[in-house]
Amino acid sequence: MKKLDLYSNIINEQQRKVFRLVLLLTVLCGIYFVMLNWMKGAYIVAGIELVMALFSLFLLLKLPKVKDYHLFRKISGVYITLFFTIMLFSMGQKHISDNIFVWMYLIPVLSYFLLGNLGIYFSLVYAGIAFSTILIKYNFFDLSLVHIISLSNISVSLLIIWLISHSYEQANILIKRKLSKISVTDPLTNTYNRQILQEIRKTYDEEHPLSLCVLDIDHFKAVNDTYGHDAGDAVLRSFALALKNAFGDIAYVIRLGGEEFGVCFPYKECADIQPLIADFLIKMNNTAIDYENISITITFSAGIAEYPKETAEFSELLKIADHRLYKAKKLGRNQIVVAEPKN
User: Fold this and answer.
1) Which of 45, 92, 172, 316 has its CA 20 to 30 A from that of 141?
2) Which CATH number is associated with domain 195-337?
3) How far apart are CA 103 and CA 109, in angstroms?
């Protein structure tokens, strides 16, 4: 079963901010260099830079509408390919300033900031081509001491920037993934917390169904009152583990608060998950939770709702499922409500 790439969506936020800044700078700097190269008579380079500036402006205006992470990565790849190609073309022109090669130091930085680990391929390929262009254009194959020193300065500084960019990106990804996981994880049960619903909403494709089941342990207060809060915590952990064992491969198990849990099923209709929840209900009725030589048996009530069939607003999905959960409670508990019961 395909699940959503939620952590990538969270990490994507920083890349979006960097990309917006890069696009804005490309527009402003592009216009500036268009004027300079036009006055210098480099009309072809000026025309290409104008096209790049306009393309960057177009992306800057459209980027807020791009929600899919993989589409964002493709757009970033197209931008970097065009930017680096224009850079290399300009570097190869005879009438362009000799110090244009300093722009190649942006290759590893932009590659890693915008493409993450994929940046290693872009940076190695384009940095290699840029370095070869310098060798050919300035005849550095003449290995005089001056040329050796110049080449050493260029190559060593580029290598240092590449290594720093690579090391930073690896550490950055690791830290952000850990922080992202912490931010959406319930510490008691090690399930997701409510925040994951926001990440699912950002990532989910509206063209496919998604079902949410909200479950609440029946008479949980009695467990706390009878056996103590430590026993209640043990029951919550055991119930969460049972949910993850049953549905963890196909759904997101969420602790919504207290003894209330949610199970979010991407790409599933209510009709698909109702029998799964019903089987789980029977299983829990026949399973005792052991706590310090005490067997505790629990039941639960549940409500199920489907998006976008029942609501066009993702934020309303939890309310509908929660309302049906309390219908199940009123009907006597230990049951599932999918549609509104008829009076």
Assistant:
1) 45
2) 3.30.70.270
3) 11
- Domain ranges (residues) in the chain: 6-183, 195-337
- Please state whether 195 falls in left (phi above 0), alpha (psi between -120 and 50) or beta: alpha
Edge to edge, the sheet with strand 260-266 lists 252-257, 260-266, 210-217, 300-307, 336-337
Q: Which tokens sit at 172?
A: 């950055």
Phi and psi for 260 in degrees, rounded to 5? -100, 130
Helical segments of 41-144, H only: 43-62, 69-91, 106-115, 119-137
> What is the signed CA dihedral for 288, 298, 320, 182, rounded to 10 degrees?
-60
Q: Are 104 and 124 in contact (CB under 8 A)?
A: no
The region that residue 93 occupies, defined by phi over 0 for left and psi between -120 and 50 for alpha, beta otherwise, is beta
Is 15 within 8 Å of 76 (Cβ atoms)?
A: yes
Strands (E), the chain: 210-217, 252-257, 260-266, 288-291, 294-297, 300-307, 336-337
Q: Is 260 helix (H, G, I), strand (E, B) or coil?
A: strand
Q: How far apart are CA 91 and CA 223, in angstroms?
A: 74
Catalytic residue selected from 49, 169, 199, 259: 259
Which token pair is 184?
A: 């959406």
Average pLDDT, the chain: 85
Give pLDDT tens digits for 77-91: 899 999 988 888 887
* CA separation for the pair 179, 184 (Å, rounded): 9
Sign, CA torsion 318/321/323/325: negative
pLDDT at 98 over 80: no
Known catalytic membership, residue 207: no
More confident: 254 or 45: 254
> Per the structure block, which two tokens stand in for 14?
């920083």
Q: Report whether 91 contacts 100 (CB < 8 A).
A: yes
Task: Provide the pLDDT confidence category of residue 1 given band limits of 50, 70 and 90.
Answer: very low
CB-based contact 157:213 (threshold 8 Å):
no
**Nearest to 235, CA basis, from 301, 278, 189, 184:** 189
